[in-house]
Every structure is written in structure tokens, then in C-alpha cells.
Write a structure and sequence with these properties.
The protein has 410 residues and is an all-alpha fold. Among the domains are: 12-215, no CATH class; 333-410, no CATH class. It has helices at residues 12-15, 18-35, 40-65, 81-99, 105-124, 129-132, 135-145, 147-168, 178-205, 207-210, 218-245, 249-262, 268-275, 282-298, 300-313, 323-330, 336-346, 349-352, 359-372, 376-388, 395-409. The model is unreliable at 1-7 (pLDDT under 50).
Length: 410
Amino acid sequence: MAASTDYRLTFLSFFIQWKIIAIWMISTLIFGTLVQIANTISMGLWLIAALMFLRYCLMIVDTTARGHNFAPSHGFFENDPRIYKQMLVALFAISAHMATPVDYRFMTDFLLFLVTPAVCTFVTFGVPLIKAIDPRNIFSFIVNLGTLRYTMFRFISISALILIFYIVDGQFTLLDTANGAYFTAGFACLLLMAVCRISGLLFHYRSEELGISTDFSQQKLSEQQYEEQQNELEELGNRISKLARGGQYKDAYSLIDQHLKRDGYTTEERLYRVLRQIQDYRPAQHLARGLIGRLIEKNQPMAWEIFNELMGESRGTFRFASGAVTIAFVASANNDDQRKKALALLTDFETVFPNHPRTREALLKAAILSCELQEFEAAREYLKKVTAHTGKIDQQSYEWCVNVINEQQI
């Protein structure tokens, strides 16, 4: 079977492939001709042709559900046990219908309408017949497929079969002429193939829930893309490591920035992990200055994890490249250990970011952290610096800090 590299299966693209068109035309020609032949020989030919076409319909369901977008090749003389099992299921359903008294037949038909599509699906995917008719498996199939989807699946399948029955039964009097016979055969074959394609699409998009192994899917494509991206990141990491070993940090940082801008920062965290593997921590530190700032909003635990790694490697000398990021980061501290580390970042804020417009805000935050850590003498010194600077601060926070310090003096 030819395999598609595109998991986005579509309905119409399947029917414009030459294999599908060829098989449909051949089937139309065969069945249209057989309709006009009424003798003993034609019955045998009918059976052979029907078995071959049914097998191909099963292959459409199977290959579509497994993620193939191309038409399967037809092995005309291959034996497929699934066909005989499907015939056995159909024979059982017809027998149950006929054996039920007319007054209660609607109950039997409703039950068959409920379970037969599930049983036929199990048989299509090679499930043993004894398991296919197990009520527990049928119930599980309906639940995993989704009640609404299963109802739609049953409606489409049964409606198509009923329509074909009425046509073949002569209700539309299409079989009385040669043209009508060929039209009926072509329409019936196309309808059955369409039902199989729709069913396969439905099963494919619920393949994980139904336990159907797929050759192509959204998940598999995502995994493949992830692996390819990881290989690219590893190669980029090697180039950056080589530049760092040669002391070309400016070029190494430029390479990092260019990559992040090109991919919209989507692989930023993974690139950081790659750079952590090289001996020189400075490239990872350069990337982390921006990464932590972006993680503050969406993943504070990871932001602190990366911060702790870099503070350990740099022996406490790591600082952010932006005063705004520094203030945002220290505001995320929510335990004493984090408060101590956040306070350490603010001790030299004036030196690292001279004349920063938010210096007064940073100093107030340092005073608040000192109060929370019960370092009131340090908090008092920070408040003096707050008073000596100009700029916007949160007045309520300032008053809280002053009140805490004054309470300690009483």
C-alpha cells in the first residue's frame, strides 16, 4: 500500500485518484453487466465480484483508519477471512430479523441497528469474531467512539444499505434498461466506497480512543517534527559551543538570538536544555535572561528552576539584562528561600541598572522582602533609599512596610 506523508486525510482527494476511479469503473461495468444476465452462471459471477468488491471496501476502511490517504492496491486473488466473517454477521442479522415475529420485529431491528456496525468494525480490524460480539466490547466501542459519532456512523451506513436495497429491489425501476442497470451499479459502488471512506475517517480521528494503530496521524507527525527540531537544536548547540570555546561569545549570542527570532521563541526552552549540556554556561545564561522573563507569566516554577541552576553555576553573580524583568521576577517569590534569592538580586539594582526609571519601585520591593524575612534593620535602610528617590510606587505597599517597621520599634 502506498503511504501518504500527510496525516490530514480528506474525503474528496481520495476519489480523484486513478486507482479509485479505475476500480469504480470496472466494478460498474461488471455489476451493470451482471444485472442484465439472468442465468445460473451469473450467480457464481455475482458472488465472486461481490466478494472482491467487499474486500476492497474493507481495505478502504482499514487503510484510511490507519492514516493512509492514498488508495490501497487491490489484490484480486488474495484470500481475506474478514469477508467470510462479515458475511456470517450479515447472515446472522438477516436470520434474526426473519425469525422474529412481525409484531416484535421492530425491537430486533433496533437491536441489530445498534450493535451490527460495531461488530462489523471489529471484524474489519481483524478482531476475532467471539470478541467482536462480546457486549462489553461493543459497549466500549460505542463509548470510545462517542455516542453522537456512533449514531452518525450507524445512520450513514444503514441509510446507504437501505437505499441500495431499494434500488436493487427495483423500487425505482432503474434495472429495466441497460442504462439504468449501469447507473444503478455505478451509484451503488460509489456509495459503498464513500461510506467506507467516511467510516475510515471517523475511526482515524478516534484511533487513540479506539486502540487502532496508525501509520500516519497528527500525533505521529508531531513526534516526527519534534525529533527533526531536536536534531536541528543539537546541531545549533554544537556550533554555539564551538564559538564559545574560541571566545567568540558575541557571535554565539547572535546565533542564539537569530534562531529564537526565526522560530518565534517556540523552541526556546528546548534550546536552553541543549546549551546546558555544553561546558561553558555563558551561552545558556544569555538565553535564560530572556527565557525567564517570558516564563514568569506562564510557568513560574520553571522560571525559578532555571534561575537556581544559573545562580549556582555563576556562584551568585547571575543578573537579568533588564530591570523590568528583575522586578517582575522578584515579585513572583512566594516562600522564604525565594525571597532571600530575590532580595539578593535587588541589593545591587542601582549599580546594575543605574538611573533606571523604576529604581524606587525596586527599592520598595527590597524593603518589603526584608520585612517578610523579618530583617527589619535592612528594611529600614531600603525605605530611606525609597524616600531619597523619585518615581511611582504602590503607596499601600509602602505604608504597610512602614507600619510593620514601626510596630517593631514599639
